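so im writing up the methods section and need the GDT1 family protein record in one place, dumping it here so i stop losing it
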Amino acid sequence: MEALLASTLTVAIAEIGDKTQLLALILAARFSHLSGAKTAIILGIFLSTLANHFAAAWVGQWAISFISPELGRYLVAGSFFAIALWVLVPDKVDEEQSRFYKMGPFLATFILFFIAEMGDKTQVATVVLSAKYDALAMVVMGTTLGMMIANVPVVIAGHFSAERLPMTLIHRGCAVLFALLGVVTLLF
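--- predicted struct ---
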């Protein structure tokens, strides 16, 4: 249960202001004229995140099996500290995504989210969380739930703007959370 809760909270907070959350806003605005677009976008986010985070969690489980538990603990803690610094750098969305819009809201969302998550903070966090907790299913469920908690309201609101949020404060809070996860990993 700890793996599920930690994964959900970590990713939900890390996702605020992340490029995939901005992408959700852009997709919701782009397809707002289509009936059922919000449902298609939410389903695209869910399935894309599930596939991407399953692969990331599997890599975390696989990689940690090759090293000693002591070294693994230090690597996981160090990774949490690195992510803490990384979240302080704001993301930007690539404007090259418009070529996928002709595929419709579901496919455009699925493809763009999968690509955007490659090497993203939340994907790296999923690898690290999976390495920390030996609970692949719980980590995948938690990180996917965290993505949905952060992105579904953006899609539903559609007109909501991330610029209205205190992004600096949110990024700093997220950095503190990752740093605390690093400390807890070292201590326990």
